[in-house]
Amino acid sequence: MKLSDFRYPLPRNLIAKYPTSPRDASRLMVVNRADESLTSIKFSEISRFFKKGDCVVVNETKVFPARLFGRKEKTNARIEVFLLRELNKEENIWDVIVDPARKVRIGNKIFFDEGRLWCEVIDNTTSRGRTVRFNLHGDFYKIIDRIGKMPLPYYIKREPTEKDKDTYQTVFARVIGAVAAPTAGLHFTKRLLTNLKRKGVKVVPVVLHVGLGSFRPVEVEDLTKHKMDSEYYEIPESTVAVVNKTIDSKGNVFVVGTSTCRALESSVTTDGHLKSTRGWTDKFIFPPYDFKITDRLVTNFHMPESTLLMLTAAFGGRDLMMKTYKRAIKEGFRFYSYGDAMLLM
User: SS in 3 state form for the chain?
Assistant: First the structure.
């Protein structure tokens, strides 16, 4: 497979700027891989495809307001600091992206929240990347939650609002650490999860902290030469027990989102079962790929030439995915993070 195999034209008016309300009122394209049929329904109807003994795996990562706006010492220049990942909790050292980068050098201090919070640049990592050390007064994440803005993807052409702190977050978000939402999970409501549990479906979590690598463009035509960014993930023993029981009893493992799928497929035993893991994964899934854990996949409609589209095509087949995307565009489905979803059966 080549990068150019994953291009498709998308009208800009189909890029969703806001989520559907309620969440499960979004549309769902059901894709049957066996007969290549496509059926359009409401997301709230998804429970009819589950049966007793199935399980559904969700990503419990929680997005934090990673965009900070401060002022550089002396010059008072306005600087955006985008928090990527915490490197050292004790010393409050972070990997960040700064903008405009040309104004930010090692030794510079940037002040936030009327000077109560500040960081000092201690290293350069990439052209826009920096390593910084924050002073700490109280709970750091509590401060960030108050002064930061949600990191909406760049293709959502508007400023984030306070409402996005709720809507750009899944109902099962629990573990802080993501700078992008696991967007397939945005369609689920507590009522829908309750209905699944009443049917005898087990809902179990993993954690994969989604980073900006999800949006980083693939710059090589030969996909085997692309390197994914590493992302931290955890698979607890309780989830392993449920998933492996589902596999052994011939139930279906429904996987919510490409991030969840990458976590599961990064932690497989030699006999095709799931194992408990805590660590980092840079697993890149593209066609052809033999999925070991995932039986059904819930996912959004992704950007052209993105690694997310490639994973989806590895599961559903590249030609069927291009057919599905063409149909979705024709029917006016909403695309990307706040858009509609598909269920690959």
Answer: CEHHHHCCCCCHHHECCCCCCCHHHCEEEEEECCCCEEEEEEHHHHHHHCCCCCEEEEECEEECCCEEEEEECCCCCEEEEEEEEEEECCCCEEEEEEECHHHCCCCCEEEEHHHCEEEEEEEECCCCEEEEEECCCCCHHHHHHHHCECCCCCCCCCCCCCCHHHHCCCCCCCEEEECCCCHHHHHCCHHHHHHHHHCCCEEEEEEECCCHHHCCCCCCCEHHHCCCCCEEEEECHHHHHHHHHHHHCCCCEEEECHHHHHHHHCCECCCCCECCEEEEECCCCCCCCCCCCCCEEEEECCCCCCHHHHHHHHHHCHHHHHHHHHHHHHCCCCECCCCCEEEEC
- CATH code of the domain in which 82 resides: 2.40.10.240
pLDDT tens digits for range 306-329: 999 999 999 999 999 999 999 999
Query: In this predicted model, what pLDDT tens digit does every residue of 4-28 receive, in sequence order?
Result: 999 999 999 999 999 999 999 999 9
Instruction: Say how many domains are in the chain.
Output: 2
Mind listing the pLDDT tens digit for each residue in 118-153?
Answer: 999 999 998 899 999 999 866 888 999 999 999 999
Residue 171 and residue 196 in one domain: yes
Is the same domain home to 37 and 185?
A: yes
* Residue-number span of the structural domain to which 138 is assigned: 67-147
For 228-244, what is each residue's pLDDT tens digit? 999 999 999 999 999 99
